[in-house]
Amino acid sequence: MSSSNLVKTLYADFFKSFRKSPDKIFIFVDKKEFSYKDIYELAKKISSLVAIKKLKKLSYVCIDVKDPALHVASILSLNSLNLVSIIIPNDTTRVKLDAVNIAQPALIICDSYNFKESIHPSLVVLFDKLESLVINSSLNECFEVVPESPSMVYFTSGTSSGIRKGVVQSAGNLFYSSRYISNFMQLDSSCIEFIASPYDNAFWFGRIRTILMNSGSVILNSGSVNPLKIYDGVVNLGANSISGDSSIFIIIIKYLSDRLEGYNKNIKWIKIASQPLTNKNKNNIRKLFCNAKITFNYGLTEAMRCCLLDLNCSHEKLSSVGRPCDGVDVKIFDDNYKLQPPGVIGDVYVNGSNLALTYINNDDLWLSKIRNNMYSTADMGYIDEDGYLYILGRSDHAINVGGRKVSENEVFNILQEFLPNYTYCIIGMTFADSVNGQDVCCVIESSSFDFPNFGNIRHELLSKSNKHLVPSCFYVVETIPKTSNGKVLNNELVSLLTSLSPIFSTLK
Q1: Quick one: three-class SS letters along 371-426?
Q2: C-alpha span between 41 and 330 (Å, rounded)
Q3: Based on the number of CB atoms within 10 Å of its own CB, is 81 exposed (0-12), middle (13-18) or buried (19 or more)?
Q4: Buried b (16+ CB within 10 A) or exposed e, 340-370
């Protein structure tokens, strides 16, 4: 991409909305309201504290701020100064310190002194007296930058490895992705969106950026999401848009379908992050939010918004994650990096305007994931004749059953009709006496003992599916260990299962 083409900064979108409607409510959080003017004033105060440090342009600054409104103001402040925001994971102090050590920032801004014992005080700006700070000067304002400029750093969830990586997002990546999703969803300034995602992930920020492009409003969540918060957002705060991962919408279907009757028709937009979601649940979402533009998103921290699916699509495309966004290239390669034709399963690679720049302070790791000038998503899938992408699971979690590569999601999907009311996942296990190398196991999350007949399920599956796709074992656990983004922690789950006996097993 040519450096001569400038893109708008996040702050530019915010400032436009601030000038247009300063008194409009921008953020609802914890029964408090913040207008665009309120957030502007907060950003000015933060900027004045940061400016004292006289950092060079594009210096990296960590943000560890618990209050969602203050978190947004901090990002806007750094963006206005042409500094790069590093979002610290909302986790234990140890994880936070690990992130800081990886990032090696020029500065840390925070609302509590988490780093007192480990970081030199000169590197920390503490917001302990922010409310009493009086600022008379105007805010330094950066409105346009080259697309390749680093803008944000978000840490991956770590998935099964537990290893987090700081992903450097460019200004162009963030701008073009948000503009495309805004156009795809047909958003406008009337949008009041309940964002149910945690504020330390890229999906959360992407929604903030997209709403700002349209001068809309957001309802932010502090702490965990529960049905009452969602109900309050829709019924009492007037949310007409909801975004979050798949689990949020399963909660809504399970607990709020009846209670939202009448209010559900006020929802105009739905944005779903792409953890696995059964077709049954997709249809339930379509039925409940019958007046909404429902968008399903496939992406990852390293490559935001790869594909989008309008959930009001034809039934035969409902299992897909949609078609690539404008400016995004998606290809399927085999193990030898040979391009695969439509319909053939392989590893999913992406490139384009949605792709991040690198991993912070780890260019070698980033380059190790590049093949044929494209980034390896570590997902397995295929593209159909119409250009729709189907994700079948993680290639790095593929189950090797007797030399056959089995996708966790492929097994997950064939179990849908037998386990419609259960939360479950698929995992590969290695057993000492097994001849398969690995065996397919189904793990069900439940605290009760009311289960279907697993022997009958296996029998029916064997008559409909290939033998290697049929689980050999069924386990029951109270809680499936997951990251904050809903991804199964495979290593932790395997450790848990080794201490348990399966409810049903064909293995001797």
Answers
A1: ECCEEEEEEEEEECCCCCEEEEEEHHHCEEECCEEECHHHHHHHCCCCCCCCEEEE
A2: 42
A3: buried
A4: eeeeebbbbbbbbbbbbbbbbeeeeebeeee
101/89 Cα distance (integer angstroms): 13
CA distance 307 to 329: 10
- Count structural domains, the chain: 2
Question: Could you say which of 109, 143, 177 is where a domain stops?
Answer: 143
Nearest to 264 by CA among 287, 297, 296: 287
In a domain, 355, yes or no: no
Q: How many CB atoms lie within 10 A of CB 208?
A: 27
Q: Which residues pair with 154 in a beta bridge?
A: 87, 167
pTM score, whole prediction: 0.82
Along the chain (508 residues), what's the average pLDDT of each consecutive run of 10 residues?
74 95 96 96 91 93 92 95 93 82 92 65 78 69 94 76 80 95 96 91 92 97 86 96 89 91 95 80 93 94 93 91 96 91 93 95 94 90 96 76 76 88 89 76 86 88 86 93 78 89 86
Q: Considering the domain boundaries, does residue 439 fall inside one?
A: yes
Per the listing, tokens 């705060």 go with 237
Residue 507 has a pLDDT of 81
Residue 219: the pLDDT is 97
Lookup: tokens for 301: 């921290």
Q: Using CA atoms, how far apart are residues 205 and 256, in angstroms rounded to an integer?
A: 26
What lies within 8 Å, CB to CB, of 336 at 6+ separation is none
In a domain, 357, yes or no: no
Q: What number of CA atoms fall less than 13 Å from residue 387's CA on the CB side?
A: 11
Distance in angstroms between the alpha carbons of the first and the last residue of the chain: 59
| DSSP bridge partners of 195 | 220, 243
CA–CA distance, 87 with 68 (Å, rounded to integer)? 12
Secondary structure (DSSP) of 153-203: EEE---TTTT---EEEEEHHHHHHHHHHHHHHHT--TT-EEEE-S-TTSHH
Instruction: Report the distance separating Cα 72 and Cα 226, nearest Å.
Output: 22
Backbone torsion region of residue 444, taken as left when φ is above 0, otherwise alpha when ψ lies between -120 and 50, otherwise beta: beta
Six-digit token string for 333: 């390669």
Last residue of a domain, one of 143, 173, 207: 143
Tokens of 33: 């309201």
In a domain, 181, yes or no: no
CATH number of the domain enclosing 45:
3.40.50.980
Q: Which strand (E) or helix (H) includes residue 27?
A: strand 25-29
Q: Which domain covers residue 123, as residue numbers? A: 14-22+35-131+138-143
500: CATH = 3.30.300.30
Q: Give the helix/strand (H/E) hosting 323.
A: strand 323-324
